[in-house]
Amino acid sequence: KLFFTDYGSAAKVERCDMDGMNRTWIVRSKLQQPTALALDLVNKYVYWLDIYLESLEVVDYQGRKRQAIIEGRQIRHLCGLAVFENYFYTFNSDNLSILRINRYNGSDVQALARLDSAKELRVYQRRAQTAVRSHACEMDPYGMPGGCSHICLLSSNYKARTCRCRTGFILGSDGRSCK
């Protein structure tokens, strides 16, 4: 699944399949400007920052169990959000520091380092990555992902895929070749 925020005409947190199908709103009320999103892949939670409402909140993948973790003015200066083990990691654009915050109660805020500027933050660690099973976009014997000549996107499950083409190309009638 792909998770994303939008605060255009109606603010929302959404999810869809990797090919863009089955788009579903998971949060669509009490939102104004959701700007950063992080996933807990193990427990299947979605966290987001709303800099207008000055809150950091969480729901499960279906949009249930909504809960505010942190509320207050300090939220308006946060950019990017990552979650790993018991902590959030974010960047404070006001004092240019990377912060670590207890993700269960918003306490234990620690500045870890200073940077001149940042907009996004990611945690890369083996334990943060889920095991990957065999899937429909694996390389075929000819080195093409999922048999697609350009781009392979997983669909509704790991066994289904959709082929897409780079800009300037159209998908052939076989559903795999780009012309």
UniProtKB/TrEMBL annotation:
Alphabetized GO MF terms: Wnt receptor activity; Wnt-protein binding
Any GO CC annotation of this UniProt entry: plasma membrane
InterPro entries on file: 6-blade_b-propeller_TolB-like, Cueball_EGF_LRP_Nidogen, LDLR_classB_rpt
LDL-receptor class B repeats: 1-43
Gene Ontology biological process terms in this record: canonical Wnt signaling pathway
One Pfam family here: Ldl_recept_b
Official protein name in the record: LRP1B protein
Taxonomic placement: Eukaryota, Metazoa, Chordata, Craniata, Vertebrata
Name of the encoding gene: Lrp1b_1
